[in-house]
Amino acid sequence: SGNYYNQGEIRKQELEQSCFVLGIPASDVTVIDHRDLPDNPAVEWDTQLLATIVLKHIEAKNINLVVTFDAGGVSGHANHISLYTAVRYKCCCFEIFILFLFVGCHVLVLESVNLFRKYISFLDVPISCLLPRDALFILTEEETEQAKRAMWCHRSQLLWFRHLYVLCSRYLVVNSLRLL
Fold it and tell me: Which of 18, 42, 46, 135 is least crowded, fewest Cβ atoms below 10 Å from its Cβ?
């Protein structure tokens, strides 16, 4: 629920506002508030517990595409890395393999890039185009501005480095992904 600084309720509202900016209805937003999955950049979540929660959500919502972090978690955040580990864990298990194979659910993993590439904004587009990947998303100028407006909704999280992120991050312009 994003409660690291005891701001869980505020951050839930900010998430809904951000999703509204992106055209995602509140009914499609699920916040998981589980005592064993604390919002903490230093805590690795239990892989099996998280994998079970994710799988139940995939099945309940009939989801056919999951986009998650890679092993670097984009920012090195332990919770982000835990999501990747849980999805990867379930992908290696027989039950999720059957789900992905027969129900048609696929997993795309967002590529973590080095610090230089992370903060060169649109200048990373030619680099990303040249490197191997399974999917590449390049946002239009309008989409980039929409993404920035969505990011600004997360006021409680806008520390100095996140301002830099919103202004200069390649992730608001280009995203490279690979199939898991």
Answer: 42
Query: Which whole-number Å values give the CA distances from 75 to 41, 89, 97, 117, 179, in the listed order?
Result: 10, 21, 28, 13, 20
Helix (H, G, I), strand (E, B) or coil at 68: strand
Question: Phi first, then psi: what are they for 95, rounded to 5°?
Answer: -60, -40
- The first and second tokens of residue 11, run together, are 């951050």
Q: Which residues pair with 106 in a beta bridge?
A: 65
Q: How is residue 135 written in tokens? A: 């999917």
55-80 pLDDT, tens digit each: 888 888 888 899 999 999 999 999 99
Nearest to 148 by CA among 111, 117, 119, 173: 173
The type of residue at 142 is: E
